[in-house]
Amino acid sequence: MPKFRRTSDVDDIDDPLTKALAPPPNETPAEREIRLAAEAEAQRRSDAIDEEINRQRIADRKAPKCVRVLLLVLKGALGIGKSTTLKNFQLINSPKAFRTERASWRAVVQLNVVRSIRTILDAMADAQAQVSPASPVSPLDLSRSPSPTPPPDLPTLTPEHLRLKMRLLPLQQVEEALLRRLTPAGSAEFEATHLSPLTNLPYSLRVGTVHREIAVNSTAQWKGAFTRLMSTTRSSFESGRDIDFEDPNDPGVILHACSDDMVRLWHDPTIKKLLKAQKIRLEDMAGFFLDSLERVTALRYVPTDDDILRARLKTLGVSEHRFKLKAGGYFCNLVSHDWRVFDVGGARSLVSAWASYFDDMDAIIFLAPISCFDQVVLVEDPSVNRLEDSILLWKSVVSNPLLQSTETVLFLNKIDIFKAKLVSGIKFADYVISYGNRPNDFEHAANYLKKKFSALHTQCSPKPRMFYCHLTTVTDVKSTQHILGNVKDMVLRQNLMNSSLV
Ligand SMILES: Nc1nc2c(ncn2[C@@H]2O[C@H](COP(=O)(O)OP(=O)(O)OP(=O)(O)O)[C@@H](O)[C@H]2O)c(=O)[nH]1
Ligand SMILES: [Mg+2]
Predict the structure, then answer these.
(1) Where does GTP bind (predicted)?
(2) ipTM score for this prediction
């Protein structure tokens, strides 16, 4: 029988916890009084939190069963559309509340614009570096590879391009000002919000650094902080009435001053060629507003619903959103139901860990970004194709016995980008070899993927269940609301069937 060390064997003085909690030596009576008061306050707060958790638990037990939906995407991939799907739920549920947050979203759109321009400026810096390497390689330094010869298709930048680039440098200040506005003072809520300074690193090495995106832990908190910040001068954001357009510190002022140069840069044929040569498709990237520059950089710009759906802000961790939704169609006579939607990034390796926390969900909305068929997973495994990774995650979710009674709704998302890529000539079969020589068009490719996901669903589900699949562009409010309406009714029907009411 192995002998275990018992707590009583430990000398109290040696116990690191006791040491850490012990009052400091030579504590004065006044210091002791302050310490005891702080300890009492900490205890009071801890008790209040315990009480709130208990109260919530009792309320949850008494409340009628609510509908629980899990939104799931692959963790580590660039934005897939979870938050955008949630925004659609919010638009259905409380459009007014959604619209009162326009001021916060205005700053996010502005940041998205600045970052797209930054990507172009970085690409220009790359091109310059390739034409005139900053430091010539010493012929004796054999550890370094020779300076790269500029690719023949890389266009040459003119002095006017370089002047344009210089004139856009103030955007760096705009970026910093926006980050200050979006980051609540003293908050650890945001991760790695700053982009590196303009760099000579090749774009191919930079593009995967998703950590450089601005990120929040939960959408509610950052907006709350922003609203508090803004509400010192205004009371409501409905229709942008109360955005302080006269504020001289508004980052929008510099953005507006740079507007013509940004438009010139984006429409410049040489810059277009440069981006193409470097395989940068800004129009496929999240938070793309360069085709609406004049509108979104106007001094009195107020984001539309569509802009809010397209704005990019990365979410961290798991968040829960609660709201009431009225049933439609056949169920329209029913009272509204409480819905809880959980926003979870699922890593393939962690499915079995989180599945036990979400085994009582009524539905999982699984988002698979089919537009990423030509990209690789950079975070989990650089050698795995993103679409393949999404399919493997789908397989682990549908085969998980803990989730066998949960309805799984598949959203094959970002079909607008998927279509655009195929039309631009990118060959689906170059990445999905089994696609063979089928036509490189949307109908065939989307159908092929639907069948693949469906076959796995049938083969791997522990018990038979329906396969629900939608081709989605969740930035399109109208079509998404229609689809969510169907999902809502399906989930309610199942929910009622399970309670033997229909
Ligand atoms: N064109 C297009 N853009 C989309 C679509 N779905 C989402 N987006 C955009 O992609 C970006 C990322 O979407 P999010 O909803 O933030 O993605 P997410 O899954 O919440 O990402 P994380 O928070 O990083 O986990 C946003 O700018 C969206 O507007 C789509 O179907 N088509
Ligand atoms: Mg998100």
Answers:
(1) 309-315, 413-416
(2) 0.97
